[in-house]
Amino acid sequence: MNILVLCTGNSARSILLEYILGTDPRIKSFSAGSKPTGSVNPASLRLLSNIGVQIDGYSSKSWDTFSTENVPHMDIVITVCGNARDETCPYWPGNPLRAHWGVDDPANAIGSEIEIDRAFLSAYNILNQRAQAFLSQPIESMSTVNLQALLNNVSTIGVK
Q1: Contacts of 90 by beta carbon, 8 Å cutoff, 6+ apart
Q2: Tell me: the pLDDT tens digits for 58-94?
Q3: pLDDT at 67 (0 to 100)
Q4: Cα–Cα dist 61/63, whole Å
Q5: Residue among 156, 49, 52, 141 at smallest CA distance from 101
Q6: Which of 5, 27, 68, 144 has a CB 3.0–4.6 Å from the CB of 17, allowing a cystine?
Q7: Whole-number pLDDT of residue 81
């Protein structure tokens, strides 16, 4: 199953969820942004590195990268920020399912490095809870209707 995670800058939340989803062997995950920053937020890389992830290969890229004919067909597109959710997305071949798993942008955190790292960890934890609830189900054998319902239901996990 191919899943594309979208955000505006593709530097924080979408990178984190790309990693989390990609830990499941049933999933090939990708991330992109509508207005990519061009680099991954250092706090995202620090968090991933601190949990033992090889950070080579993560990059901030445009969602246009995934709207051409020579890219993997996406089964699901998940937005993690309201801006990307509300923008007019490119055409995704195959009419993938869509979900919005919005999380506050940790890149907006201010303060010491420790306070910023806490904001990134909080976003990571919420996304991880949602992803684990999603991945704990037999997603490869679910009907489209049930898969969409699951995507929608897990979107509320961690909402205060």
Answers
A1: 63, 64, 66, 67
A2: 999 998 888 777 888 899 999 998 654 455 666 667 7
A3: 77
A4: 7
A5: 156
A6: 5
A7: 83
Residue type, 131: A
The domains found in the chain, sorted by start residue, are 2-154 (3.40.50.2300)
Q: How far apart are CA 8 and CA 102, in angstroms?
A: 12
Q: How far is CA 78 from CA 17, 33, 54, 95, 101, in A?
A: 9, 11, 23, 13, 7
The residue with tokens 């969602």 is 63
| pTM, two decimal places | 0.92
> What residues contact 52, with CB distance under 8 A and at least 6 apart?
none
- Burial class from Cβ neighbours inside 10 Å (0-12, 13-18, 19+) for residue 95 reads exposed
Return the pLDDT at 2.
96
